[in-house]
Design a protein that fits this description.
The chain is of the alpha+beta class. The chain folds into 2 domains: 80 residues; 65 residues, OB fold (Dihydrolipoamide Acetyltransferase, E2P). Helices cover 47% and strands 19% of the residues. A hairpin with a 6-residue loop joins strand 1 and strand 2. It is elongated, with a radius of gyration of 31 Å. The model has no long low-confidence stretch (mean pLDDT 86).
């Protein structure tokens, strides 16, 4: 009887590992059922060894999952899921650098910044974000940071009050 327990467990662990290479859920479900049947049969026929049986089945299942995770990136299906190349700056792949010339410039708030909205710098309207406070439309703001396309502004009256303090 012990051989049936071992055979069922080995078949279940193999099916769980295969599930990582051939997706679909059928192999994994069948493998889990075979492992459960193996555990039930082992505990039924050898009740005095229930704890070692369950521990070994659990560890074996974990090992089959880890083996499947190891095999997945090396399988043809796994290679389809992963990007095979990198986007290097030398090849023209660059992140938006942002217009750092805006730092220190003042503008007028067109739509309320709660905390994001539109600010007008001369004739140019840009999306901006306040540094946390809500700023009503018509207020004068100054750019304090530019990160890519994110422009952070603060209200000019706040900075003057802080400078006087």
């Amino acid at each position: 009887m012990i051989w049936w327990v071992i055979i069922l467990f080995a078949a279940g662990a193999t099916l769980i590992t295969v599930e990582f290479v051939v997706p679909g859920g059928i192999c994994g479900t069948a493998g889990a059922l075979l492992i459960i049947v193996s555990a039930v049969m082992g505990c039924y026929h050898y009740p005095e060894y229930w704890l070692p049986i369950l521990m070994l089945e659990f560890l074996g299942t974990i090992c089959s999952v880890l083996l499947g995770m190891f095999l997945l990136p090396r399988s043809p299906f796994g290679k389809l899921l992963m990007l095979g190349n990198t986007q290097k700056a030398e090849e023209g792949w660059v992140n938006e650098t942002g217009n750092t010339d805006l730092v220190g410039k003042s503008g007028t708030v067109v739509t309320p910044l709660r905390p994001a909205g539109t600010v007008e710098f001369g004739t140019e309207r840009l999306q901006a974000v306040s540094e946390g406070a809500f700023i009503e439309s018509g207020a004068v703001v100054r750019v304090i940071e530019v990160h890519g396309n994110r422009i952070v502004v603060e209200q000019v009256e706040q900075t003057q009050a802080n400078a006087n303090a």
